[in-house]
Amino acid sequence: MLVILTMEKETKNTVRFAEGEEQPAGHPGAPVIGTMYIQKFAWAQMGKPDRVAVQLEPVKTGQPAVDSQTAQSAGASADKW
Q: Domain of 18?
């Protein structure tokens, strides 16, 4: 499930994002995440976007949380996650 969050405000060390009404197909309509805080250093590394997307996927017990393909597309190795 894909959730889009829009920046609400900057706090001392974080940036607050909230789930808005504009969501992609497949979203249930009611808030799934609500509010999410991102550390300012991470927000800056992403280019200080006004909107971010969060992909929610189940992770089975005993399965790596991040596979090597996902890690490579993020510029890291799965060992670092």
A: 2-80
